[in-house]
Amino acid sequence: MSTHFRRVWAWPIALSVLSASGLISALVSDDWGDGWSWLALGLPLVVMARYSFRKEPA
Question: Which residue ranges traverse the bilayer (predicted)?
Fold first, then answer.
């Protein structure tokens, strides 16, 4: 795998896998799965909010 591919796609792939595991966990598990689904679905939202409100360097 090239370095450029990893630099561009590593985080989006990791966040999508995290989101998918959160969705599956929310659908099929109880108790601990509820906590995991909140975390796994909330973390990508936190990352998106952080980068959308970031100020560009002058």
Answer: 36-53
- The model carries a pTM of 0.78
Torsion, Cα 37 39 40 44, to 10 degrees, reads 140
Kindly report the number of other CB atoms within 10 A of residue 57's CB atom.
4
Work out the number of other CB atoms within 10 angstroms of the CB of residue 25. Answer: 20
> H helices of the chain, where?
3-28, 32-52
What is the identity of the amino acid at 48? M
Measure the CA–CA gap between 17 and 27, rounded to whole angstroms.
Answer: 15
pLDDT at 4 over 90: no
Q: What SS3 class is residue 31?
A: coil
